[in-house]
Design goal:
Layout: H1 6-36, H2 41-92
């Protein structure tokens, strides 16, 4: 085929396995270094996202509360406006 023997292929596979093992060891070393320095950008991102989410929830609750207050006050003024002629009709009738 390509002029490679079974031994060549096995040697290449062994080299690939060795390189993959070396890569995994290096990745673990980097992760240990990062975690030992408490310098995890992902952790900081998650903390920031959590804080932003809680602030957003508080603001949403405030807005919903104000909206309900406005709807109630508008509803009461509308009922009061409707109530006056209704009382006059009863007085007339």
């Amino acid at each position: 085929m390509y002029g490679r023997t079974v031994e060549d292929v096995e040697r290449i596979r062994a080299n690939v396995r060795g390189l993959e093992r070396q890569k995994d060891e290096m990745r673990e070393a980097v992760e240990k270094t990062i975690s030992s320095r408490n310098d995890s950008k992902l952790g900081m991102f998650r903390q920031h996202a959590s804080l932003a989410s809680s602030k957003l929830s508080i603001k949403e609750e405030e807005v919903e509360s104000r909206l309900k207050d406005l709807q109630v006050s508008k509803g009461e003024s509308a009922i009061r406006g409707l109530g006056a002629p209704h009382k006059r009709l009863k007085a007339i009738g």
